[in-house]
Design brief:
It contains 14 helices and 5 strands. By secondary structure, it is mainly alpha-helical. Among the domains are: 100 residues, Glutaredoxin; 157 residues, Glutathione S-transferase Yfyf (Class Pi), Chain A, domain 2 (Up-down Bundle). The N terminus and C terminus are likely disordered. It binds glutathione (GSH). Glutathione binds next to loops. This is GST C-terminal domain-containing protein. InterPro entries: Glutathione-S-Trfase_C-like (IPR010987), Glutathione-S-Trfase_C_sf (IPR036282), Glutathione_S-Trfase (IPR040079), Glutathione_S-Trfase_N (IPR004045), GST_Omega-like_C (IPR047047), GST_Omega/GSH (IPR016639), Thioredoxin-like_sf (IPR036249).
Length: 403
Amino acid sequence: MDSRSISSGDCRTQSDMWATSPSPHPLHLRRPPPPPFLVRRHNKRLDRIAASQDPLTALTRVLWGRALPPAQLVLAVRHGWTAAWQLLMRQLAPSDPSTGAFTRTPARFPAVAGEPSSRLHLYVGLPCPWAHRTLVVRALLGLEARLPVSVAVPGDDGAWSFTPGSPDRLYGKRKLREVYTLRSGGFEGRASVPMLWDAERREVVCNESIEIVKFLCGLVGDGAGGLDLWPPELRQDIDRWYGLIYPSINNGVYRCGFAQTQEAYDAAATELFGALDKLEAHLAGSRYLCGDRLTLADVCLFTTLIRFDLVYNTLFRCTRRKLAEYPSLHAYTRDIYQMPKVAETCDTEAIMAGYFKTLFPLNPGGIQPLPPATCDRESLLRPHGREALSSAADTPLEAAAVS
Ligand SMILES: N[C@@H](CCC(=O)N[C@@H](CS)C(=O)NCC(=O)O)C(=O)O
């Protein structure tokens, strides 16, 4: 029988029967059982419904027909659902209990301490904007041969894992946490990416992205063409920009997405779009944040911008505007995307899956939307026209274009 052929009359009958079915109250237990023909008819009806559709639909049809679930049930599920969301969010994205604002857990190894050996290994995950910073710097500085990389993927439990297609190239471990625990002092805390590992000392060098990229700028790679992303004369300027970008944009999108109260979200979203407006105005007259030279400040901004319309705009509710609606910021993003080797570090599919499928509390159904057309490779390779803003005739990065 087709499920559509169950009439609303049928359904009402089901609901009524359910409503008047014997209660467990002791007085009612003494009631004589219904005649066998009625029980048979009732059971047959249930069988028909169950056979005609998937078990969950069948159950809801038996319980409340085609009507909406009873109000009490809706309310109970709503409270239970919210409580479960809060519980998961507490663990995924700890917040300030008094405001509901996301408070990022500090990295366990926030600074490069001592003198690392020359046997370094980089652990990253492609969805992660913080890890992406290290991949961009590694590529731009030509550190690929000097700094091997292992790419972890989000496991079903949300923890960074390795697969046969994306293995731990150093130890063949299954989880990133297992690598962290190889250090002699053991490991407690969050096994996050990026993580720079010293293979000789079996020690974490650092797991704070901004410190890792500064450290990488001190390594000499092949083919960097004299590029310095952290030049001494611009450090003050870079730090000043980073002081705006990090709290309001890099972490700002997370503060929107992980806010646990309306007030916390409102504050984060207002700050985020205020900062984007400021950058839009600045970048209308300046090719990069610190003038004509690409620096670490740009790399740190880029890895958030490239994810903006793909995930933050929708999943994290950064909705006031899309990146594509900011002419200068969008062209600036394309400018950096088109630098040699940068596009290869951007993996749209991994980014979208990493957020929409892994951040379960924000997207319980796990449905991944279509990527916006403005995020397609072809669209990002459109001319950006920003060369005109550069006074330096020929920067090392302009020598080659992404094909
Ligand atoms: N402060 C760190 C943040 C890194 C971070 O939050 N990474 C996320 C992925 S985007 C992570 O690995 N999270 C795993 C966890 O917190 O357990 C940095 O900038 O390096």
